Amino acid sequence: MFPALIKLVDKKKLKIVWSDNQESLISLVELRKLCPCATCDAERDNQSKTFIPIFSTDQITPLKIKQVGTYAITINWKDGHSTGIYEFPFLRRISSVDGEN
Q1: Whole-number Å distance between alpha carbons of 8 and 49
Q2: How far apart are CA 96 and CA 24, in angstroms?
Q3: What is the pLDDT of residue 65?
Q4: Closest CA to 19 of 75, 91, 83, 76
Q5: What is the Cα–Cα distance from 54 to 100, expressed in whole angstroms?
Q6: What's the CA gap between 87 and 16, in Å, rounded?
Q7: What Cα–Cα distance (Å) separates residue 16 from each residue in 5, 40, 45, 54, 80?
Q8: pLDDT for 3-53, tens place per residue?
């Protein structure tokens, strides 16, 4: 399964239309919160289970979304963060199908 279309919606969500015609929406806050890079993963491990991240506008504003091979995307965020590789199965798993989120 792969994205047929990826686009920003209202500067708040990422919309993905999948090859099976399912549509997903993922909030940019959720994308940043779940960034799969090693740095963000380590930060999450160091936080308590009750920690609630508060993001600045720069941290949840994508400047560029690029495809990585045939399996993922990477996002260059306005605050300079760009090391997360969001694999397509991961995006499908964290998304709300048909905009239920």
Answers
A1: 30
A2: 5
A3: 96
A4: 91
A5: 23
A6: 13
A7: 6, 23, 29, 25, 24
A8: 999 999 999 999 999 999 999 999 999 999 999 999 999 988 898 878 878
